[in-house]
Amino acid sequence: MSQTITLYVDGACRGNPGLGGWGAYIITEQEEHKICGGELHTTNNRMELTAAIEGILFCPKDAKLIIWTDSNYVKRGITEWIEGWKKKSWKDVKNPDLWKKLDATCQDREIEWNWIKGHAGHEGNEMADQLANQGADQIAAQENSTDPKKKAESDWLLNDPFGLEFDEDSEENQDEFEQETALSAQRDDTAQDESLNTTTHGSNINVTTTDHPQIVITPATVDAIGPRQLILDTETTGFYFNDGDRIIEVGAIEMINRKLTGSSIHIYINPEKPVGDSENVHGISDEFLKDKPKYAEISDILFEYLKGAEIIAHNATFDMNFLDMEFERVGLGKLSNVCDVTDTLVMAKNKHPGQKNSLDALVRRYEIPARDRTFHGALLDAEILADVYLAMTGGQVSFDIDALSQSLDQQNSSGKREINVDLPIILPSSEELEEHEKWMKLYADKHGSPCLFEQENT
């Protein structure tokens, strides 16, 4: 009987195009293997494909392979799109050399392809990601050792970390690449971080456990560093926060630097009034809620968990109005005074004007894996929204002026007090100015034109 081998494959790219690496973590019935490599000038998709090719080639041809990739571009390409590409003689297909090689490598093999969510704390996927970055480091070190003049280009700005440089090929808008950008957005480590919160360890939030039997707080499993973002949803007895409707469920999951840390909070709340017709939406009955705590009983713990984070919600005005009302009712003040707020509905309307932008519509548009939403649930909707948010904000860095203006309007209307602080001005030394001049010359030599700082001074 042939053996079964599990492979986790991943690619990485520092700039797109830029320095890239690939990695494959291979688990046989007897042992584990770790292989990696890289290229100086490549793209993320090419590294994803190379990781799959090299991982398969490493394995015996008679083995059954179970492959896990966090790239839907690779998974769907080899299982769905490739036959159509062949019929069209690979016309208008990007990376045809690697697709043909992958196709040939898969012939006469038994392979099961699977997609896995990237940067979600899965041990196999995280190992493949580490190997991909190791491959990029190794190829960079080799290049620097053979050509000392290139060592100066290790400067992170020269390597285009934000993917702002495009070659002609990378600007084409093929459907499969738009789908890949949306579906693999959660693995884009270079996306712009607009959060204004204080840097914290996700696992060091003051509230990680509680003895309250009705409050479920899951501690973080990923020790990430950076501003906290909480993807949040609520369920209520109705639509009108100022006319007696109350919150009956709160769910929020934590994300730091585009990685879900595993931390979450989930609470059912007795609204002290009948849920009425809203049960048809969320499926939560009066009978179910009768032994649940009142808002005043859980407010301190919930407020402590939420405060200081950037709250991300779909139609955030609805959720924040209810949360502000409930926290003010118990004397804690408005949550919006201690949190920044991002409304994904506003983002979606700016990004897709004139289209349906409900959560269900965005799930379909970005091909988020389907979940049963017969009834809305706060934690379920928060998990779905996390996928949608990562998809909408992933891919190449873009500056959405409308969304930014909307975000600033929300911040200005949140009632926060402005604090004016006179910051010290630190002037550069002569040595620092000299190094800066050298850097600008290196940039101009590499790109054939002066950098932005030099252009502004001419």
TrEMBL record:
Region (Disordered): 162-207
Keyword Cytoplasm in annotation: yes
Active-site residue list: H376 (proton acceptor)
Cellular compartments annotated: Cytoplasm
One GO CC term on file: cytosol
Biased composition (Polar residues): 193-207
Binding site for a divalent metal cation: D233, E235, D381
Molecular function GO terms recorded: 3'-5' exonuclease activity; DNA binding; DNA-directed DNA polymerase activity; magnesium ion binding; RNA-DNA hybrid ribonuclease activity
TM regions (residue ranges): none
Annotated positions binding Mg(2+) 1: D10, E48, D70
One biological process term in Gene Ontology: DNA replication proofreading
Annotated positions binding substrate: D233, E235, H282, D381
Catalysis: reaction(s): DNA(n) + a 2'-deoxyribonucleoside 5'-triphosphate = DNA(n+1) + diphosphate; Endonucleolytic cleavage to 5'-phosphomonoester
Keywords for this protein: Cytoplasm, DNA replication, DNA-directed DNA polymerase, Endonuclease, Exonuclease, Hydrolase, Magnesium, Manganese, Metal-binding, Nuclease, Nucleotidyltransferase, Transferase
Cofactor names: Mg(2+); Mn(2+)
Domain of life: Bacteria
Ranges of compositional bias, category Acidic residues: 165-179
Annotated Mg(2+) 2 binding sites: D10, D129
Cofactor note: Binds 1 Mg(2+) ion per subunit. May bind a second metal ion at a regulatory site, or after substrate binding. Binds 2 divalent metal cations. Magnesium or manganese.
Gene3D superfamilies associated with the record: Ribonuclease H-like superfamily/Ribonuclease H
All copies of domain RNase H type-1, residue ranges: 1-137
Subunit details: Monomer.
Protein family: Belongs to the RNase H family.
Function: Endonuclease that specifically degrades the RNA of RNA-DNA hybrids.
Protein name in the entry: Ribonuclease H
Species whose genome carries this gene: Acinetobacter equi
Lineage, uppermost ranks: Bacteria, Pseudomonadati, Pseudomonadota, Gammaproteobacteria, Moraxellales
Gene that encodes it: rnhA
